[in-house]
DNA sequence: TTGTACGCGTTATCAC
DNA sequence: GTGATAACGCGTACAA
């Protein structure tokens, strides 16, 4: 491999000059610069980033961990992350943690080994390795959280207003004349579940219907949605609307209803969450809450770069806009007036 | 940050010994080892991987490029890649190229800058940077291709038998009594399109029906599938079966049929390709070709490691098993006998 | 504007 | 079994 030394020799300048041509070209005379560049080209020189990193203590990499990269929600977020990182000159080290603590720790360790300049973790558990770093460096620690927000973590985060969104969904369901509504939650320990549940309950209370709000737990997957729906639909007094905390669970609910010959939206209304690509292609197209997935990803990168470049410290919480997308999976409930908004 | 030097000093040994405790503990006396380890623990020492890489010329990273990480097919492959890499002690640098030549080159350049030990590219275009490396190092170049296979590239690759799979699909459609079959292809320059088209045509020829085989082009996306289907379904003599070269296009086709009030599978049979997760949840569940996505990902990593560890050179082509998954989107065609396999 | 010289933190090769 | 010490390739303060 050709080094800066080879370039310098071939161009008849010192290593310093050759190096300068590549890092601060303006400091070097037009003519020498041209000569050096010509040699760089001819020899096919490429800077050894490892050596450069050792010198500068910057790697130009960030690690990003996700519970499941093949989940359509996360893969969109990751895409936003990759794009923003790439634009800023950073490379992305991808970690699929499968919600496994050990894997999470392993990726967090990369920070200690200086394999990356910062880390974005998508998930709600703060690895102890990161907690220690946070402890030591406080708000200047290059750690950012995405999608879920737990203020007590003390790290910056990008997310939507989950409670608000859930509340809107409930409001719209009540407006459509539904009274017996069921929730299909995510895992109980997820802040996502917590926030959305709070929002939904608040709406139910506002309408004096908290007593008729029921819930089943899932894990955001299609199968868990199907299972939960099967339970709910075989109740003595089944709900007329099911609000799932993920589109995948909503799709599972649709499948369960189909199997049970319950037609949607005539006999059962279904609402999802996220607005993944498939939401609009299932039958009936799914009413859901659109999360700006790519933007969430991009924003986490921005927050991290703010810390990395010393622009901004303190944990900042970025709330991005969501939007209720009305499609055809919601119909009028028993108390709906035909004139009500479809 | 604490360095090996600090550890050595605190433990009262030389840097060499301290370092040895971490890389070849068996060479160090029990007592000194324990002492050093205690200090490592107490000081919270973590090896600086950058310095280590500079010395060893190995980074422990591989770069993986995909056209679109949010595509359900690729995200599964990537998951397999991540898993296998992780197990082997490698980290994954993710590159989303969006089929953009410049981006592809940019990620390929990482090899020259020694940001990674090897590269896996999912896609069919060999970046010129890689071509140069291949030119120089021949079969020992740490470059592997996945999903698509073009022998002339001269790189190892993991994939299924695309032509064979397409042929099977056609055979099964003919057996079900279909004669007017339409293909929805991928981009014309893709080897995937080429191979599957060859397989489909071969089957048509075998049945003397090549004259009745028609085709439309798509780009593997849902929308392109819908567009293609709209064209096909408004033909004077529309096909009774549409074989799409991706599940997403098949889902688009299902949507087009629904809009046109053409019921599937009664009036139109649809077949997809890949068996992405959603394939079984759309209505009707999609008959498709299952690709072992995660295994393809894992295999590309194995192939790369073979090269990296000098176990195997020469371009090897790994053909993984696929399987035709029969679900409900295919029904009997005009020439089908009721007794035929459903 | 250019060159000299040092150090980044490891690992590996020698001696002892 | 342990210790000196020389690379690895680069960036940059400082001197010229």
Automatic annotation (TrEMBL), chains A, B:
InterPro entries reported in the protein's UniProt record: HTH_LacI (IPR000843), LacI/GalR-like_sensor (IPR046335), Lambda_DNA-bd_dom_sf (IPR010982), Peripla_BP_I (IPR028082)
Entry's Gene Ontology molecular function annotations: DNA-binding transcription factor activity; transcription cis-regulatory region binding
PROSITE patterns referenced in this protein's UniProt entry, alphabetically: HTH_LACI_1, HTH_LACI_2
Claim: Ribosomal protein is one of the keywords in the record: no
Database matches in CDD domains: HTH_LacI (cd01392), PBP1_LacI-like (cd06284)
Segments forming a coiled coil: none
UniProt domain HTH lacI-type: residue ranges: 2-56
Keywords: DNA-binding, Transcription, Transcription regulation
Metal-binding in keyword set: no
Protein name per the record: LacI family transcriptional regulator
Organism (species): Hephaestia caeni
